[in-house]
Amino acid sequence: MELDYSQAGFTEKQIFNTAVKLLPTINEMNSIVKTRNWASDYASLLLPSEKTFLHQSHRVLKQVKADNFIVVGIGGSNLGTLALQEPLGKKIFYADTTDPDHLKSIIKQCKGKTLVNIVSKSGSTTETIANACTLLKELKNYEVIVTTDSGSKLDKEAEQNGWLVLEVPSRVGGRYSVFSNVGLLPLAWSGLNTTKLLDGAELMIESCMSNDVEENPAAILASLIYLNYQKNRVVFDQFLFSNDLEALGKWYRQLLGESIGKHGIALTPTVSIGSTDLHSMGQSYLGGADNKFYRIVNSKFKNSAIVPKNNLAPNLNGKSFNKIMNSISTGFQTALANRKKPFVSFNIDKTEEELGGLMQLEMVEVMLLAKLLKVNAFDQPQVEEYKKHTRKLLK
Question: Domain containing 343: what range?
Fold first, then answer.
């Protein structure tokens, strides 16, 4: 993984002077990791080095063989899984929102035995319960595994029905839970090497716990988002130059949006896909207001397709699709730099280690950014507002 922040809009001195303010928080995180303090809000930092959940998921999948896998969950219960499964694993079905046409399509495609993984920390998420009840009525051959908090309504329902339950650590919020049973079970079924996934995340934890802020990528990135926000760059766009990384962008959108979007803070995460969105939003990106800060993520494609000889665009003859996409990304970055539009860029390989490391980096980054912005990175008090009104309407 390569990180370049030379076009981020600030000098290294400005960046590091901001990052130094995060040392007390970094030291607190270090202490939690060393003491294995599961009672802390930072408990998710312990997940990459905690092998219990890894062994649980592998043991379960040895016991339960299935032709299909459905994750019944929404938000933090499925976005992290989707972010990793799309670029790396075989197909998983996702029953998230209450779309009956989508649900019917899933049911029609599930031939043979289906593993239904109902994922909800609270155990009472409206969409999840509606989808789960419908699936269990309509599917003919299935096994149920529940992933939830101990003592939740769903936990009690599972006990009554004899369903297997995998617990989520109580202090690990949904958006930080991908390296727990929430993500590890479906990802292992999908064929990912979850050991390597955790290894990549654990290695990144070590980097992000460094007291040398010049070598701490999470402190640097958090500082850059903060500094650009102070310049009224309120839109933070994750620009991913690969279709199968779109879910990674959506996972990060939730991570940043729920963790930071409170007390009137205007920082808004968005997701763009290259090169598609350059043909609809490119004019706005380059010619619009200077209110955006970009994170550009480049990766190599597994398929090394070559453009055949043609007369329409001879300059493309013999060029690989990797070369074309990289040229478009580099061209966009050059245009941004020429217009003094700030951005950072990542070059990553689509492997379990690198994607696991990237997701862990982004989780620590958001925790540190919350400190700079003086908000709680772990609650989402306003989310309950619409849920409360929804429950009233459904009575």
Answer: 2-28+198-373
